Amino acid sequence: MDNLKLAEILFPNLSLTVDDIEAKYPQRQLAPGAMVTRLAPSPTGFIHLGNLYGAYADMKLANQSGGVFYLRIEDTDEKREVPGAVEEIINGLKYFGVDFDEGALIDGEKGAYGPYRQSARKELYQVYARELVKKGLAYPCFCTEEDLAEIRNQQEAQKEQTGYYGRWARDRFLTMEQIEKNLAEGKPWVLRFKAMVQDGETVGLVDGIRGPLVLPANNMDFVVLKATGLPTYHFAHVVDDHLMGTTHLLRGEEWLSTLPMHLALFAAMGWEHPLYCHTAHLMKKEGEGRRKLSKRKDPELGLNYYRSLGYHPLAVKEYLLTILNSNYEEWRLEHPTAADSEFEFTVDKMGRSGALFDLEKLNDISQTIFLQLTAEEIYEFVLSWAKEYDTAYAQILTDHADMAKKAFDIGRSGNKPRKDLVYGAQIAKFSAYIFPETFEITDSYPAEVSKEDCVTILREYLQGYAYEDDNDAWFGKVRLLAQELGYAAKPKDFKKNPDQYKGHVGHVSGVIRIALTGRTNSPDLWEVQQILGVEEVARRVNNAIAALN
RNA sequence: GGCUCGUUGGUCAAGUGGUUAAGACGCCACCCUCUCACGGUGGAAUCAGGGGUUCAAUUCCCCUACGAGCUACCA
User: Fold this and answer.
1) N or C, which end of chain A is more exposed by having fewer CB within 10 Å?
2) pTM (predicted TM-score)
């Protein structure tokens, strides 16, 4: 077989040569140790937590080493492409704090190693595919779907490994005449890699996360170029990551089993492969078992889920970081306020087994994230969330900006701050008590207090209420009132002698709390009243009295 | 089915040929306390199972079970 001639017949119209390309994509001039990483999603749907998880790792690796983090769009499958997906990927990632040094943009791109959309790199792949043919390492295959199904059936019947390989690789043995004839007849063809391995041969490499790995060498004559002339993932990955100078390649563990193909390709091209790092999948608990989080079944996998609920992007990032690197949480404990960029991220501390997504932990982290924001920042964040997902609440926040900010800030100072705020939707519900439009009495009065006493307490309380009182003076009055009505001034006294009292001051203030906030659970009452103002306090107490009668 | 990867409390996990097997979230109890929180103290709870190797195995090897992934002209 004349490989050079075959290459010429298969690729007659390429304008570029290998030298042209190598000249256009020189090795990157970076400091030693600088890592080049990438995110390479395919525009087939929404971006999910898994993408974000990987993106943070890639970004940290590049940033902390003075390297480059770029975005490449893997759009070689025209059938599955979803319109607008690229925009959604970029915007979605940006919202959660992922920025790229170079790569695809919504319109166009930036960086010298483009194009960053694989569909625009068709000729590049073909030039290298032609090289493969020249070396006798690739050949055209004219098999139809039916032909392949037939091969598979036979293999299954004979209990042999399925696939296109060895003696089953029908078109591997085509003569030049047969190929020319097929071509002349206009038969569609794909280009297959010609696997050259002995039975039982293995390949070894060191994975950044999993350590040394020994895998069976690839024996499949897999497809390198589809009938459309576009490459498969395997070929595109090898060509692109070589040309774009990727040094550390993070990807999901689903690629582990096709890794030998990629290794074979790198070897065939005579290129060095990047350091592969195969990450574990995020899992989901289902019944007794666990399974990979799935795009279809699990809305919480979509980034949009967290965004629509109003989780702060920093909270999502912080949470993902804790499951990304096993020693991050410990570091965070020692550096509670440091920027996460100060944490040195290492690939070998990434988990080998899939983590279950833990919403409760996210909530916990989310609470402490809000603690670090100012009331102003919280307000801005919640408002921008509400504008998109809860317009009624957005209107209220706009109308009562000052009130909202003060309410968000209650009890957050000092060294034992409250952690009331978790995420947008929760905040909307939690803060409802403060605004006149949403205030309503939803909880019931303490069972220890009779209806008559409730009325008495509220009447007397309102009479004695003075806006100028400080917190201590205010509560002193409540204590006094409690005592006058036969309630213990201190809960401890009541606990010791429950028969001597109707209840204790907590029950009395509970009545006031219900009247003022509508709930048994509210931030500090004195502060709430400072925000509401005398008139509103009086209005709410009077309404409560009226409702009791 | 074949191949590959994985398995430490409920969850995230540290860790090592000899440890009282960290820590975090959650849970429970108590303390603090005007509620709820926050905070503090304490507690329950883990090396999937079985074989080896070894003086000694959670750690090394093998098998089994379970989970996951791949087995496309998808990525």
Assistant:
1) C
2) 0.89
